[in-house]
Amino acid sequence: MTNKYTLERANNYIKNNTVVKDFYPKVNFAAPVGWINDPNGVCIFKNELHLFYQHYPYDSVHGKMHWGHAKSKDGYHWEDLDVALAPDQVYDKDGVFSGSAIEKDGKLYLMYTGHIINEAGEIRETQNIAISEDGIKFEKYKNNPVLDEKDVPEGSSIQDFRDPKVFKKEDKYYAVIGSKTNDERGQVLLYESDDLFEWKFKSIILPYNEFLGDMVECPDLLLFEDKDAFLLSAMNYTDKDTGEFYPHISWIIEGKVDWTTFVFDVDSIRKMDGGFDFYAPQTALISSDPNEYIGIAWQQAWHRTLPSHDLEHKWSGQMTMPRIIKEQGGEIIQKPYSVIEDAVKVTDEVEEYHLETSWQNNFEDNYIEFEIDSSEKIKLLLSNSQGEDISMTFDGIQQQLNFSRENTLRIEDIHGKVFNRSSYPIPIKNKKLQVKIFIDVSSIQIFINNDYTFTSTFYTKMPLDLLTISSESNPIINNLKIGKLQ
Ligand code: FRU
User: Fold this and answer.
1) Per-residue DSSP letter, 355
2) In angstroms, what is the span from residue 17 Cα to ligand 1's centroid?
3) Which residue's C-alpha comes closest to atom 9 of ligand 1?
4) By the 8 A CB rule, do 191 and 202 touch?
């Protein structure tokens, strides 16, 4: 088969093209050139964190997907590597879609979805394996696909069958795979293997519930000691209470797998992140602590305008910084990755600050931390002399975060609807509201009480270099820290 999407062509293109860096992140990962979406194959291999990602190098839009690749010694600084997989086979010719990685006998195995449009013009999705000795150069398994439409249980779609996340439990390998029923209900399938090559269908591990919309993408199953959790993304979900429609949304679903029936019993479901730009998170166990995973998500949203594309900057999309997803005291918490937190050099610090209406300071930094009593409400405004700003109000009284990027470059959906304001409920269990904010060139990641997170992009013509903190109630701000990631 002749195919113009070869690894060689992709790597040459990347070497010979550069991006315009106006909005390009300094901390978060973005592609050297081109479009990215989901993180794939997040894993530790030979003591380094590997990040593969959905990548179309040739344009700043989604296209025939490849797997881009980077690695990091510390989970913070990334080294770009050659593209790992190109859509160069009959079974993946229209896209090497999302998947995951696992180490076996010292080799790195990738399991990914081959996306094709067949001669009848119908979509088919199959699961495939690629193997590497060094974690850099991958060879696709000669008997691919390892799962195809014959392996899909009756009543489930053979077109939407994607994003295998592989894991090992005792001496078996398992993969959870995003799926939907033929009557358009999201669900997750479980497959089992002894050797990563021969797979068999095991169960519908997560049957449909209303939160799963009409398709599940990128399911990830985290097995903690006392409970389990699915992180997954659902398409076309409508909130019954508010009527709000989400074309894409990511959930944390807590519960427990029953390993006799291979079905996950759901305890609770909540949004994984309240921001505009957070999708398809994927995790890996990083330490000997079985309760601690590192997770990275695509910090972007589908079908919204992208200033870096519109202005022909030759790149689109970025990842969140790694975060920790951990079971602690029976709860699942999310907090910044310690290596990144430790890299913050505090430039200004006040233990206790009594705020009289407002406080203003030049802001050349990218980190803000503080605590207030949960009976308070304060507003942070990051602005510049061009009239651009983002604002966030931490409202302990209403128990919500109000975020606005109204005064930044316009971002709209395919219907022309602008997305620039959001209210995110933050039910506070403790007396304090503890906030940590990481600001990159075109994005913000907010962590509240290691529990609620809010992740969003914003695009400004000039840096936001003035910080104003204001409140109507003269609150005490504790442990106010301003800092810079170095
Ligand atoms: C999620 C997703 C996956 C798919 C990939 C294609 O964002 O739609 O389901 O594998 O992106 O790029």
Assistant:
1) -
2) 25
3) 217
4) yes
Residue 115, φ and ψ in degrees, nearest 5:
-105, 125
**Ligand 1 atom closest to 217 (CA):** 9
Q: In angstroms, rounded to a whole number, what is the distance separating the alpha carbons of residues 259 and 273? A: 29
CA 456 to centroid of ligand 1, rounded, Å: 19
Q: Ligand 1, from 92, 94, 98: best to mutate by most atoms within 8 Å of Cβ?
A: 98
- State pLDDT tens for residues 230-288: 999 999 999 999 999 999 999 999 999 999 999 999 999 999 999 999 999 999 998 78
Residue indicated by tokens 């001496």? 171
Q: Is 38 in the pocket of ligand 1 (CB under 6 A)?
A: yes
Q: Exposed, middle or buried: residue 134 (CB in 10 Å: 0-12, 13-18, 19+)?
A: exposed
Q: 449 with 374: CB under 8 angstroms? A: no
- Ligand 1, closest atom to CA 97? 10
- The per-residue pLDDT for range 322-368, each reduced to its tens digit, is 999 999 999 999 999 999 999 999 999 999 999 998 999 999 989 99
For the question of whether the overall pTM of this predicted structure is more than 0.85, the answer is: yes
Q: With residue 9 as reference, give the H or E element that holds it.
A: helix 7-15
Asked whether 72 and 130 are in contact (CB, 8 A), the reply is no
- Does the beta carbon of 40 lie inside 6 Å of ligand 1? no
CA of 46 to the centre of ligand 1 (A): 27
Integer angstrom CA distances of residue 368 from 67, 76, 247, 321, 419? 34, 18, 32, 16, 24
Which amino acid does the sequence have at 102?
Answer: I
Ligand 1 centroid–CA 293 distance in Å is: 22
Amino acid at 2: T
Ligand 1 mean position, distance from CA 145 (Å)? 18
Dihedral pair phi/psi, residue 212, rounded to 5°: -85, 0
Task: Specify whether the CB–CB gap between 245 and 234 falls below 8 A.
Answer: no
Rg, the chain, Cα only: 22
Six-digit token pair at 145? Answer: 């696909």
CA distances from 196 to 42, 180, 191, 248, 412 (A): 17, 24, 10, 30, 42
Question: Can you read off the two tokens belonging to residue 287?
Answer: 């330490």
280 close to ligand 1 (CB < 6 Angstrom):
yes
List, edge to edge, every strand of the sheet that includes 215-223: 215-223, 228-238, 245-258, 263-271
* Alpha carbon distance 467, 321 (integer Å): 23
